[in-house]
Specification:
Length: 851
C-alpha cells in the first residue's frame, strides 16, 4: 500500500516489520498478566499482521491463501475503522477491490452517524481501488468537516495521493502541460514536500530535461541529506540522465543509511545494471531478494503462516505549455505563483480526475446525514469481538464466544467469487448510497504491478543464460560460373556463457564455399587467373573448379559498452588469416553517444575475396581479401526520434591482390512510429556515400573480386517491425531506395605492368584470330549505373520447450551490383529453463563472417 494510504490506518505509518515485531513482543507477556488494554492492543496488532501477510502472499501469487488469511481476520475488525481499513486495503492488494469497497460501505450503511475516521477509511479504499470520480466527491464532502489533527493529516495524505495520481496519469499519457496545470496549486501549498516536488521532477525527466529534475532533487537533499526516498529518486533520475557517477554516489549514501532495505538494494542493482556492471547488479538484486525474504519470513511467522522561489518574470508560466516563455527552460525549474508562499489556498485544491470530462460522471454520495447513511431498514451493528488471550482465534479454528464467523463477517460484492466455505451474505439495501456507486475500471498504467528485485534479477539472469546454438546458414549470389557466382554454406555452432559483466562466446563454424567451374570459352578464360595469354596457349584446359572449405574458430566477449572478438578464416582455406574487432560505446550526454570500432574483417563478396582462388593451369593463387580500418558512429536519440552520422576509412589487402582503400560517409534519421513492450515499428531515411581508390572487382590475377566503385551513393527508406506474442518473436525489416555507382576502367593485371603489356598483346592477337573477348586491349571498361535498391529480411524464433528454441531467417538483397539470397535455420538450447518473455527484436544465429 502507498504511504498516503497507510497514514489513515493509525497515528503514524507503520511498516510490516514493526507490526510483526510488536506482536512478538506482546506474545511474550504471560496471559495472566495481560490487561484488557493489552488484549485490545494485541488484537489490533494481530489484524495488521494478518493484513500485511495477505498482501505479501498476494505479491507471491498465493491468492487463495491470502484470501483465507483475510477471511480469518475479518471477524476481529468489530467497529474499529483502523482495522477495517487495514483489511479492506489488503483485499485490494489480493485483487478483489469490490470486496474492499463493500466492507467499508457495509459499515457505513450500518452506522447511523459514521465518524470521520470511518469516512476517511472509505476515502482510502477509494484511493486504493482507483475510484477517482467518487473519491473526488467524498473528499469535497470531507474538506469542511471538523476533524482532529490526526484525521486532518490523514485527509491531506489522501488528497495529495489522489492529486499526484492524476498528475502521473496525465504525465504517462504524454500531457505534460495538463499535468503541470493540475500539479501547480499543490506545489503552491507544499513547496517542500518531497513527493509533490518529485512529481514535478518526473515531468521534467519525461520531457528530457534531466538537469532540471536533478536540480529539484538536489535542493531537497540539501535540506534533508539523509532522506533515503529522496536519494533513491535522485539515483533513478540520474540513471535516466546517464549520469552514472551521481547515481552511484547517491545510492551508496542510501546503502550506508539503510544497508538492508530491499528498495535501496534494488535501486543499487538498477544503477549498476545501467552502468553495464551486470555481475555487481546481480549481487545487489540477490541481496534485495534475501532482505525481502527475511522480512516476509518474520511476517509469516508472526501471522502464523509458517524547491525554491519562483523564477523572476516567469510567475505562473507553464513550462510544458506551447508558447510559454523561452526563459522557463533556461534557468531554475519554473514553479507556479505562490510556490514559496507560506499560506495555502482558503479551500484545499481537489481537482476533477484526469480525463473525467470525456466520460459520464456518476453522482457523488450525498452529504452525510442519518437519513442517507442507510436504507429504510438499517441493519444492526455487528457484535464486537471478545478479548482474546494469546491470539484472537482459537488454535482449532473455532471462533471464541461472541465472535462472528467468516461467513458473518460482511457481504461480498455481487462480482466477488468466494473462497471455498464462504457463503455470500445478503446484499446491502439498494437505497444505500454507499452501495450504489459503480466500480469504475482502474487506470491500467496505475494498476500495473511495480517491478521487483526478483523481476530484475530474473530478467538479468535470462539475458545472461548459458546457451548452445547450432544451425545451418546458406547464401547464394547470382553471377557467372567460376567467377562472381557464389554458394556459401555454413554450420555455425556457438556456446555463450556469462563471464564477469558480459557474455563470452566460443564459436566453431564449418564452412564450404563454391563458385563453380569457369567456362572454357576464350571470353571467360581470358578474364580469369592468368588471363588472355594463357587462354590462347591452353584453349581447352580448364582452370579448375573454384571451391574451398574449412572450419572457422573464434571467441568473443561483449558487455553493455564493449565488444571484442578474434577468430580465424576457416582453417583449410587456401589462405590462413586472423580476423577480429574492438568496439566501444561512450555516452557523451543523456541523448548523444559515440561508438568507435577498430576491425579486421574478411570481404565475402565472392569466393575470390573470401577464400581465395587458384588457376589450375598455372598453379597461381590469389585473393582472401581483408578490410582493415576504423569507424565512428555519432548518434542522437531522444527515445522517439534519432539521427546519426557515420564515418569510416579502411585499407583492403589480400594475397597477391592490389592494395586498395575505402572511405565512407553517411547519415540518417529514424522515428519510432510505434513502441510498446511487445512490439515496435521504426522507419527512417538513410544516405550513404563511399568510394574506393581502385576498381578491383574482377577475377584476373591481382584483382580482389569485390565491388569497389570509385563513387557510390544510395538513398533509402528503411523500416523495421518487431513483435513478440507468447512463445513467438519475429522481425521484418527492409529498405527501398535509389542507388548510383561509377566504376573506372581497370587493367587486367593491376600489380604487374609487364604482364599487363603481354595481356594486351595477347588480347590483340586473339581479336585478329577471331576470338571473341570482352576487350582487345586487356582493359576492363568503366561504367556507371542508376537503379532501384532494395532489401528485405525476415527472422523469427519460437520457444518449443522451456530450454529449447527454434528459429529461422531469410533475406533478399540487391544492394550495389548484385542480387543475393540468404537463409538459415537453427536450434538454441538453454542450460536452465527460460520462463521470461521472448527476445525483442529476435537475435537469430548467423554467420560469424557476416558483418
Amino acid at each position: 500500500m502507498s504511504c498516503r494510504c497507510c497514514a489513515t490506518l493509525s497515528a503514524r505509518p507503520i511498516s510490516a516489520p514493526y507490526w510483526s515485531g510488536a506482536l512478538a513482543t506482546l506474545e511474550r507477556i504471560p496471559e495472566q498478566n495481560r490487561t484488557r488494554d493489552i488484549a485490545a492492543l494485541q488484537k489490533r496488532v494481530w489484524v495488521h499482521v494478518q493484513a500485511e501477510a495477505a498482501s505479501a502472499l498476494a505479491r507471491e501469487g498465493r491468492v487463495q491463501q491470502a484470501q483465507s488469511v483475510l477471511m480469518q481476520a475479518e471477524p476481529f475488525i468489530g467497529q474499529e475503522p483502523e482495522l477495517l481499513g487495514a483489511v479492506a486495503l489488503a483485499w485490494a492488494d489480493v485483487g478483489d477491490p469490490n470486496r474492499a469497497l463493500a466492507m467499508v460501505r457495509d459499515m457505513l450503511a450500518r452506522t447511523p452517524r459514521p465518524e470521520v475516521g470511518l469516512r476517511l477509511q472509505y476515502a482510502a479504499a477509494l484511493l486504493k481501488t482507483q475510484q477517482d470520480v467518487e473519491l473526488a466527491g467524498v473528499l469535497r464532502q470531507l474538506q469542511d468537516t471538523p476533524m482532529s489533527a490526526q484525521d486532518r493529516r490523514s485527509f491531506e495524505d489522501i488528497r495529495v495521493g489522489y492529486i499526484l495520481r492524476q498528475v502521473d496519469g496525465l504525465r504517462q499519457a504524454g500531457d505534460l502541460a495538463g499535468a503541470y496545470d493540475m500539479l501547480a496549486p499543490l506545489l503552491a501549498e507544499r513547496p517542500q514536500d518531497p513527493e509533490v516536488v518529485g512529481a514535478l521532477a518526473r515531468m521534467y525527466a519525461d520531457h528530457g530535461d534531466h538537469a532540471q529534475a536533478m536540480g529539484l532533487y538536489q535542493r531537497l537533499l540539501e535540506r534533508d541529506p539523509r532522506n533515503v526516498g529522496l536519494l533513491l529518486a535522485a539515483a533513478n533520475t540520474a540513471t535516466g540522465a546517464k549520469d552514472h557517477a551521481y547515481a552511484e554516489s547517491a545510492v551508496q549514501i542510501a546503502l550506508q543509511i539503510a544497508p538492508q532495505d530491499p528498495d535501496v538494494l534494488t535501486t543499487a542493482g538498477r544503477v549498476y545494471r545501467a552502468k553495464g556492471q551486470a555481475s555487481k547488479a546481480g549481487q545487489y538484486f540477490a541481496a534485495a531478494i534475501e532482505a525481502e525474504n527475511r522480512q516476509r519470513a518474520q511476517l509469516m511467522v508472526a501471522a502464523g503462516q509458517g524547491g525554491g522561489p519562483a523564477v523572476p518574470g516567469a510567475a505562473g508560466a507553464n513550462p510544458f505549455r506551447r508558447g510559454a516563455a523561452q526563459s522557463v527552460w533556461g534557468g531554475r525549474p519554473v514553479l507556479p505563483v505562490g510556490y514559496a508562499a507560506a499560506a495555502p489556498a482558503p479551500q484545499p485544491f481537489i481537482p476533477q480526475p484526469a480525463g473525467v470530462a470525456r466520460f459520464a460522471v456518476p453522482p457523488a454520495p450525498p452529504a452525510p446525514n442519518p437519513a442517507t447513511y442507510y436504507g429504510d431498514t438499517p441493519a444492526a451493528a455487528p457484535t464486537p469481538p471478545a478479548s482474546a488471550g494469546r491470539a484472537p482465534a482459537r488454535s482449532n479454528g473455532t471462533p471464541a464466544a461472541g465472535q462472528r464467523t467468516p461467513q458473518e463477517a460482511g457481504p461480498p460484492s455481487t462480482h466477488y467469487l468466494p473462497v471455498p466455505g464462504a457463503a455470500p451474505a445478503a446484499p446491502l439495501p439498494s437505497s444505500s448510497p454507499w452501495a450504489a456507486a459503480p466500480l469504475a475500471p482502474p487506470n491500467p498504467a496505475a494498476a500495473a504491478r511495480p517491478r521487483t528485485a526478483l523481476d530484475e534479477l530474473a530478467e538479468l539472469q535470462e539475458g545472461r543464460a548459458t546457451t548452445l546454438s547450432v544451425g545451418v546458414v546458406g547464401r547464394a549470389r547470382q553471377g557467372e560460373a567460376g567467377l562472381s557466382r557464389l554458394t556459401d554454406m555454413q554450420a555455425p555452432v556457438e556456446l555463450k556463457f556469462p563471464a564477469g559483466d558480459g557474455m563470452m562466446a566460443v564459436r566453431v563454424t564449418p564452412t564450404g564455399v563454391g563458385a563453380g567451374t569457369p567456362d572454357t570459352s576464350y571470353g571467360t578464360l581470358s578474364r580469369f587467373g592468368a588471363g588472355p595469354a594463357t587462354a590462347l596457349d591452353m584453349p581447352t584446359r580448364s582452370p579448375g573448379s573454384q571451391s574451398d572449405g574449412g572450419v572457422g574458430l573464434g571467441i568473443a566477449y561483449e558487455t553493455e559498452r564493449l565488444a571484442v572478438d578474434v577468430g580465424t578464416l576457416p582453417l583449410g582455406f587456401r589462405q590462413v588469416d586472423v580476423m577480429g574487432g574492438l568496439r566501444y560505446r561512450a555516452d557523451l550526454s543523456e541523448q548523444v553517444s559515440l561508438t568507435g570500432e577498430l576491425s579486421r574483417r574478411p570481404v565475402t563478396d565472392s569466393l575470390l575475396s573470401f577464400a581465395g582462388a587458384r588457376d589450375a593451369r598455372t598453379g597461381e593463387k590469389w585473393g582472401a581479401v581483408s578490410s582493415n580500418g576504423a569507424r565512428l558512429d555519432l548518434t542522437w536519440d531522444d527515445g522517439d526520434f534519432g539521427a546519426y552520422v557515420i564515418g569510416a576509412a579502411h585499407a583492403l589487402q589480400g594475397r597477391n591482390v592490389q592494395s586498395n582503400t575505402r572511405v565512407e560517409l553517411g547519415g540518417g534519421m529514424y522515428w519510432r512510429v510505434h513502441q510498446t513492450p511487445d512490439s515496435a515499428f521504426t522507419a527512417g531515411l538513410n544516405v550513404t556515400g563511399l568510394g574506393y581508390r581502385k576498381n578491383l572487382r574482377y577475377f584476373t590475377y591481382g584483382h580482389g573480386g569485390y565491388f569497389s566503385p570509385q563513387q557510390f551513393l544510395a538513398m533509402s527508406v528503411p523500416f523495421d517491425w518487431a513483435q513478440r506474442s507468447g512463445r513467438l518473436s519475429y522481425q521484418v525489416r527492409g529498405a527501398l531506395g535509389v542507388q548510383y555507382f561509377k566504376e573506372d576502367a581497370a587493367p587486367y593485371f593491376p600489380t604487374n605492368r609487364a604482364r599487363q603489356a603481354a595481356a594486351a598483346q595477347a588480347a590483340s592477337d586473339a581479336a585478329a584470330f577471331g576470338e571473341v573477348g570482352t576487350s582487345s586491349t586487356a582493359i576492363y571498361p568503366g561504367q556507371s549505373k542508376t537503379g532501384l535498391g532494395y532489401s528485405l529480411g525476415l527472422a523469427m524464433e519460437y520457444q518449443l520447450h522451456p530450454q529449447l528454441f527454434v528459429g529461422s531467417h531469410l533475406a533478399l538483397d540487391n544492394a550495389r551490383n548484385y542480387r543475393q539470397f540468404t537463409g538459415g535455420l537453427y536450434m538454441r538450447y538453454a542450460l536452465q529453463p527460460y520462463g521470461g518473455r521472448q527476445a525483442l527484436p529476435v537475435a537469430p544465429l548467423k554467420s560469424p563472417y557476416a558483418f
